[in-house]
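ok so heres the complex, three chains, lmk if somethin looks off
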Amino acid sequence: MVSMFVTAFIVGGLICVIGQLLFDVAKLTPAHTLCTLVVAGSILDGLGLYEPLIDFAGAGATVPITSFGNSLTHGAMAEAEKHGFIGVLTGMFEVTSSGISAAILFGFIAAIIFKSKGKV
Amino acid sequence: MDEKKYATLEKKISPKPQIARNMFTAFVTGGTICLIGQGISLFYTTFFDFTERTSSNPTVATMIFIAMLLTGFGQYKKIAQFGGAGAAVPITGFSNAVVSAAIEHKSEGYVLGVGGNMFKLAGSVILFGVFSAFLVALVKTILVKFGVVSW
Amino acid sequence: MEGTIIRKVGLMMMSIILMLAACGTMNEDSIQIYNDTDEDIEEAKQVFENDDRLRKAVVVLHDDELLAGVTVGTFERFRKTKIEKDLKEKLEKAYPEVEVLVSADNKVVIETKKMTKIKDQQQLKKEIKKIKSLSEEQT
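and the predicted structre for the whole thing:
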């Protein structure tokens, strides 16, 4: 139980350190870094390495943006296993729907409720 | 002065990022956010009918909600200033980008302002996520058809 | 200015780690089996005891269904799915007429432990079915 928290902290921190290195050393913008990490998560899932990481670290691997790439690929591969090539298209957003729907929904609700801060 | 001279001058004068310190703060911030996520996941597993695997769905939705509140009250930028990538890489950073763009462009109206600008950052992330997922799944399906790997 | 922030964060981290360490280790039996059929549970016990990747196991044997919740060690969690498959094969060989489900999921372990205290047959059957369908879920 406790070990889940420790591994979540360490793995989550490490993924963010990789992001920070992309910021500082490779001098990428935040948009570039996030896209790189999403693609990395997707490739890792294709190799079958990201799911064991989720088993090991729990939220430490599902909270960073890399899990987004992982769930897209995972859904696509799961459908392709059942339905062949067309499954690659139909299965993609099956698992990911909560993340995107939540972001869009809460973004809009926030725009309704909150006032713009204005100052820099 | 020409481009090369300007580039070398710019490199000499601009402050160097303290890489070690940034790495430490990113590690701590990212780790703490994931720790909170783990706690939320544990909450959903214990009190609702979610297994460890499926609890990632409500956990992500809850963290996006929390990030929305923090962004709306203007607190997330302090976390982002301290943590750098540690606040941008988790899903809360994604949510912060979407929500802050939505709030900022509210004055231009809901359809053109909020709707048109919400996906400034999210758009690229979704685009490359879908594209790479498509390629990876396609390659894997082809390899499976040829019998090189199995599912 | 920044030094104080780092000092505060460091202090918070130390206290969190100390609190977590103070929670301490949990004191439980390593294998719990609840059996109300006339199958022999010795083989199941052997399967779980011989596997030293496991930390705990809770097994419920009822009618023709076997539900096993196991807890694996920290670093073995990387191979969680493989361990589940291995155990399922071994148990299916030992009890061929029984429907076996092995899960290393925390939720399944907690629910299975709760099930060992249920005495009512009908409720037990319902619970087993519910847990089995839960662990099949993908999203």
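quick notes: Residues 2-113 of chain A form one domain. thats all i got rn
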